[in-house]
């Protein structure tokens, strides 16, 4: 079938993107669902730094590629072997198409699915190959989702069914911003009542973590960023303190605010200097979590003796170290209770045709979460 999609033609094209147009919106071909796959009509897709990092070259991928990994939509058609979904179901996409059978999946860690990681790295579907093409040329997939398009063929293992009463623009943010940010708090960081938490990087993921830390009962939540408007947003969403990380004495200020350091410090920047800041403001015996994705060539240097002598823990969090089929319903329940006001992360709604301008805003720090509203044309 013919669909409209935003295709990345060249990696590393300089901004402003409104002028250089790294993403071209045009008509391409989409193959229907194969075994275990569904055809999804897109309703809403979020613009994320993970997409931006492909555009700017920090995360090289095969091109041409249809980006986008955070979305919600309606099932239009199901392929053979699909039992959990049917046409008309409302779903959220997840950016790791877990197989359910490899070692990590069987161990309850679907974010680390081995076939899913291999497929994502190759720009293909987990079942193999691609379903996108343009005049006979292969077009690659972003994490098996490629939701910057009017329709997508997606593995059923990448989709979570939701209540149709949930607004799909809000639902879209659950698949990455909330799953990653809140998941890092609840799963990776194990934030507990009365503890002290520091959050470095206040985009959509970081602000979701701020909200989650408040739900978890953290006594102090120190929000850290270089942009005043992001710090203000964090305070409005539950942070108890805000620190400008560009300040020369930011580390000392944070350690003073936290009486020696945070129990859990979480980095969501994809910047090694920011990750080092998160490590430096973690107390003895504390845990430093990173959900950022720096350029693969970036290296982190820390005093190795501290890991033993201070019993420090440094660990990564991918997909919020979670189980999407378990965690997304929980987060939706918290939203329904008013405890996880995800809608406050959404600063812009845009049309697919305006996607380059949207990535300019994201690059410049002028937006938290922008959502492509496919009803807007």
Summary, kept brief:
With 377 residues, the chain is an alpha/beta fold. The chain has 12 helices and 18 strands.
Break the fold down into its secondary structure elements and pairings.
Elements lengths: L1 E7 L8 H4 L2 E8 L6 E11 L1 H7 L9 E2 L4 E8 L11 E4 L9 H4 L7 H9 L9 E3 L2 E5 L9 E5 L3 E4 L5 H21 L7 E5 L3 H13 L3 E6 L2 H9 L4 E4 L5 H8 L4 E6 L4 H9 L1 E9 L14 H5 L3 E4 L7 H13 L9 E5 L4 H9 L5 E5 L4
Helix pairs in contact: 5-6, 5-11
Structure description:
The protein has 377 residues and is of the alpha/beta class. The chain has two domains: 2-177 and 322-376, Medium-chain alcohol dehydrogenases, catalytic domain (Quinone Oxidoreductase, Chain A, domain 1, Alpha-Beta Complex); 190-316, Rossmann fold, CATH 3.40.50. The chain is built from twelve helices and 18 strands. It has helices spanning 17-20, 49-55, 103-106, 114-122, 168-188, 204-216, 228-236, 250-257, 272-280, 305-309, 324-336, 355-363; strands spanning 2-8, 23-30, 37-47, 65-66, 71-78, 90-93, 132-134, 137-141, 151-155, 159-162, 196-200, 220-225, 241-244, 262-267, 282-290, 313-316, 346-350, 369-373. The strands form three sheets. Strands 3, 5, 6, 9, 10, 17 and 18 form a seven-stranded mixed β-sheet that branches. The chain has a six-stranded parallel β-sheet with strand order 13-12-11-14-15-16, sandwiched between helices. α5 (168-188) crosses α6 and α5 crosses α11 (324-336).
């Amino acid at each position: 079938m013919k669909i409209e999609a935003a295709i990345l033609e060249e990696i590393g094209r300089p901004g402003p993107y409104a002028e250089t147009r790294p993403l071209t919106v045009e008509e391409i071909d989409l193959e229907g669902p194969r075994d275990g796959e569904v055809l999804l009509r897109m309703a809403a897709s979020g613009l994320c730094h993970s997409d931006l990092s492909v555009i700017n070259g920090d995360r090289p991928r095969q091109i041409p590629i249809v980006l986008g990994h955070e979305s919600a939509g309606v099932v239009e058609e199901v392929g053979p072997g699909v039992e959990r979904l049917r046409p008309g179901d409302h779903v959220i996409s997840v950016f790791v198409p877990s197989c359910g059978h490899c070692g990590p999946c069987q161990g309850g860690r679907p974010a680390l699915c081995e076939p899913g990681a291999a497929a994502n790295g190759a720009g293909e579907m987990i079942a193999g190959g691609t379903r996108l093409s343009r005049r006979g040329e292969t077009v690659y997939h972003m994490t098996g989702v490629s939701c910057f398009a009017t329709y997508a063929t997606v593995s059923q293992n990448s989709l979570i069914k939701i209540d149709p009463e949930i607004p799909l623009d809000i639902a879209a943010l659950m698949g990455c911003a909330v799953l990653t940010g809140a998941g890092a708090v609840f799963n990776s960081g194990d934030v507990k009542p009365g503890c002290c938490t520091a959050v470095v990087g206040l985009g959509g993921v970081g602000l979701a973590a701020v909200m989650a830390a408040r739900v978890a009962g953290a006594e102090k939540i120190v929000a850290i960023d270089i942009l005043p408007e992001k710090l203000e947003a964090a305070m409005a969403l539950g942070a108890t303190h805000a620190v400008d990380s560009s300040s020369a004495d930011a580390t000392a200020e944070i350690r003073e605010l936290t009486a020696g350091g945070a129990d859990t410090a979480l980095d969501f920047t994809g910047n090694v200097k920011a990750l080092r800041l998160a490590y430096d403001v973690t107390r003895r015996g504390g845990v430093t979590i990173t959900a950022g994705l720096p350029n693969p060539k970036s290296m982190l240097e820390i005093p190795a003796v501290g890991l033993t002598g201070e019993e420090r823990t440094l660990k990564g969090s991918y997909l919020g170290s979670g189980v999407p089929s378990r965690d997304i319903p929980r987060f939706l329940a918290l939203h329904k209770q008013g405890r996880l006001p995800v809608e406050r992360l959404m600063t812009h709604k845009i049309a697919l045709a305006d996607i380059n301008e949207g990535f300019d805003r994201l690059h410049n720090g002028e937006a938290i979460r922008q959502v492509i509203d496919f009803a807007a044309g």
